[in-house]
Amino acid sequence: MFAAMTFAVNDPEAGFCRDCLRPQADAAARRCAACGSPRLLRHAELHRLSIAHIDCDAFYAAVEKRDRPELRDRPLIIGGGKRGVVSTACYIARIKGVRSAMPMFKALEACPEAVVIKPDMEKYVLVGREVRRMMQALTPLVEPISIDEAFLDLSGTQKLHGMAPAIVLARFARQVEREVGITVSVGLSYCKFLAKVASDFNKPRGFAVIGEAEALDFLAEQPVTLIWGVGKAFAATLARDGITQIAQLQTMERGTLMKRYGTMGDRLYHLARGQDTRRVHAEHGAKSVSAETTFDIDLAAPGDLVPVLRALSETVSARLKKAGIAGHTVTLKLKTHDFKIRTRNRRLSDPTRLADRIFSTGLGLLEKETDGTRYRLIGIGVADLAPDDRADPSDLVDTAARKRALAEGAVDVLREKFGKKAVETGYTFGKGNRGRPQREG
């Protein structure tokens, strides 16, 4: 659907809608021509920039409000007791003056009606990992900064996704909101420093762009505290030297700054000019390969869930084969209608990369979970990765397994030549996109 929108020829100054992702024809329009949303994104360099910083909005508080809808419109503080400090606060509480690291007694003085909840780090880590996996589906170059933020480099991914990085990121933000139940803010630029700066604009649900052509003028208007590493103490040192604005740093020589402030002076010189050559470095290689999907409506019937499981198994298999790897452990993931996550796994006697084997293993796990529970998401993956040279050996007991493996290889050849829909299994045939049941109307 999205790849057919011809984003590459869209006028970047007309932009696109962040809600429906439709390109816009009128650069002066205030609302989307398709859905009426005012959330339009426009920028002269919109389709050229590829370095992003993604930051979850009031992360701990957002997770708690997701799980406790009765708190949605109330000020919420995550932190310790009266002698503790604020870990984070929702935006309602922030409007009242509550800030992270503020002593709890001061926070409650500023917002006495706030609800206080102790942090549940185990839960937050699980949600953070879920968002991280979704980032890694966009690009392998994901550099985590903390549990709820990361840099991404989407250079060279336009052919893969069929759209510019800006639109991929807007789709990702919408996906996180829909599937995880929290919101994120996105900063897009040509370097890490300005991507991080941009992500702080317009929170929550923000999406800001800082292009190369505007960087100098933009930075000139900012205080020196915007520069990474300039905290209160160093800002005071700069102020004593009469430097409070980045515009002043832009007029100073590199040697002068280094003589005064050492290596920090070198950083001031380059960042004041929007020069940041740091690359986005992935934390580590992939530990698993997976695919998942969220339903438009909650599903409980095996007849609805099994075709999706089959389609996802084929997606995982294709990724494994392309990467030349296989996995020992098959993991089924389910998310219930109330956002509770169930994971079930089974370790195989030898690694696999076959869709048939991934699916049959996942099916065995799924059968135990189809007890009438309604699910909003299903996923399948393999872990404990290894090279595929020892994957799926011939089974002397199950002779049919060898035939199925050969048949799958023949199907792969046909799909490579004629497209994914050239051959379908009985599980997915006629079931619509990714095995989902087609709905009338």
Automatic annotation (TrEMBL):
Q: What cofactor does this one take? A: Mg(2+)
Q: Matching PANTHER family, A to Z?
A: DNA POLYMERASE KAPPA, DNA REPAIR POLYMERASE UMUC / TRANSFERASE FAMILY MEMBER
Q: Which InterPro entries match?
A: DNA/RNA_pol_sf, DNA_pol_Y-fam_lit_finger_sf, DNA_pol_Y-fam_little_finger, DNA_polymerase-Y, DNApol_IV, Rev_trsase/Diguanyl_cyclase, UmuC
Pfam families, sorted: IMS (PF00817), IMS_C (PF11799)
Q: What is known about its subunit structure?
A: Monomer.
Report the EC number(s), separated by commas if there are several: 2.7.7.7
Which positions does UniProt annotate for Mg(2+) binding?
Answer: 55, 148
Which PROSITE patterns does the annotation name? UMUC (PS50173)
| Organism the protein comes from | Nitratireductor arenosus
All residue ranges annotated as the UmuC domain in the record: 51-231
> This chain belongs to which protein, by name?
DNA polymerase IV
Record localization? Cytoplasm
